Amino acid sequence: MLGKRAYDSGGSAWLMRKLPVLLATAMASGWAAWVAESRGRLLLLFTLLSALVFTLWWYGLAHVWRAVRSRRYLHLLSLPGLIAGLGLYLWFSLWLMRPVLLPQRTTYDFIANLEVTARLVDPALLKVERWDILGRELDVLFVHPAPSGSTALVYPVKLAPRTALRAELALAPEAWAAEGDGVTFSVYVEDEAGMHLLYSRYVDPKHHQADRYWLPIRVDLSPFSGKLVRLILVTGPGPAGDSRYDWAGWGEPRLEQPIWP
């Protein structure tokens, strides 16, 4: 009986010693797979780094717990540091790998800077409106495709690191039951190397119920960080070239960056 108790005690002690490692490995694997989005070598490297960080954190937490059980309450003072350190690592991981998940700040408002491009466009094809779609109101750049095929809004912008273009695409609800075949929204960047198509989406709420909403988009501009480029928002007709009632809207188009750092 004594041998069995000693064995049980030894097994429990072994488990308590290994528990931080096991928990850290599980947490690191899950965190790395989610943040790195399974990107090969990056996933492996990030898993190893996260395993080290989480292991040290769990050992630190276990040390505090043992100290408290021994009534050495002064060790509780290290708990805020452990929590803050882990939080800082998680935040930095997101900023480095998945900045879209962090709070964002607007660094450029396309509607507020409309005069930059308005002089290049027929005034009959462009204006600012406010639309309500399913109870959600947004300021909108109303753009109609030109008779020649499409309307392009050109904005010269110097792009800071980790910048993304965001907008909500839609057609005016008044056009949903009208003739036509929808609209094609496209985003281009022009730099010294030429023109680059970064995004294109065909929206046709006249025939597709799923398009009768605000359709959020995010276009990553980080490959052009530090460059002075021309951002071009292009609005064109649908595949049939039918521009009747193509009352297209770019809802609150803007450039965003993570708030910190």
Please explain how this structure is put together.
This protein is α+β, with helices and mostly antiparallel strands. It has two domains: 2-97, no CATH class; 105-258, Sandwich (Jelly Rolls), CATH 2.60.120. The protein contains four helices and ten strands; from the N terminus they run αααβαβββββββββ. It has helices at residues 2-36, 40-69, 79-97, 115-118; strands spanning 104-109, 126-133, 136-143, 151-158, 164-171, 183-191, 194-203, 215-220, 228-237, 248-258. Helix 1 crosses helix 2 and helix 2 (40-69) packs antiparallel against helix 3 (79-97). Mean pLDDT is 85; it is low at 1-12.
Short descriptors:
2 domains, 6-stranded antiparallel β-sheet, Jelly Rolls, 261 residues, 4 helices, alpha+beta
